[in-house]
Design goal:
Elements lengths: L3 H4 L7 E7 L3 E8 L4 E6 L13 H9 L11 E7 L15 E8 L4 E2 L2 H11 L2 E2 L2 E6 L3 H5 L14 E6 L10
Parallel strand pairs: 5-7
Antiparallel strand pairs: 1-8, 1-9, 2-3, 2-4, 4-5, 5-6
């Protein structure tokens, strides 16, 4: 289903990114300048050892946080999908991983480009969500052609996400 409220934001030749929509748990991390700590979140809650989002907190503490000085990335909030069993069944080796799909820049109050998300993930050793297409917007039919084209995570796919990179810095956008 294409949400009509978003469909008007696409013009032919705008650069778009199409990624696989993952059915897991929304999870994020961000450096907190006040506490000087990496904070770990579910969609709505700050996580800790007693509220770990089925292991996400521990995963970040053991597999992600030790790899870098996160204060360098204090301007960013990293958003991703914590791969746990939900509605769609994926390959067993797919679970227990975090796949980043967006980075929010606090100082500019905008998302960064998908190219920058990919580059930052590569630099930090984080997994980036599977990208199916990056190029000019052609049509909605072209976008739909990427449905059910992924086998990266298993035989089923929840859907796709189409992001208009040209719209990131338009002042009227959220």
């Amino acid at each position: 289903i294409i949400r009509k409220s978003n469909a008007g934001e696409f013009d032919v030749s705008d650069i778009i990114s199409i990624t696989t929509k993952i059915d897991g748990a929304n999870a994020s991390i961000a450096w907190d300048e006040t506490t000087q700590k990496l904070e770990i979140f579910s969609r709505d809650n700050l996580l800790d050892t007693s509220n770990s989002l089925k292991g996400f907190y521990d995963y970040i503490k053991t597999q992600v946080e030790p790899k870098t000085d996160w204060s360098i990335y204090s301007d960013f909030v990293f958003f991703g999908e914590w791969c746990i069993k939900h509605t769609i069944k994926y390959n067993s080796d797919w679970y227990g991983k975090w796949r980043v799909y967006d980075i929010w820049c606090k100082s500019t109050n905008t998302y960064v480009s998908q190219e920058r998300v990919k580059a930052t993930c590569k630099q930090l050793g984080l997994e980036y969500i599977e990208e199916l297409y990056n190029g000019p917007f052609i049509s909605w039919e072209h976008c739909r052609s990427f449905m059910n084209k992924s086998a990266a995570y298993g035989p089923d796919q929840e859907g796709i996400v189409v992001k208009n990179q040209a719209a990131l810095f338009r002042p009227e956008n959220r």
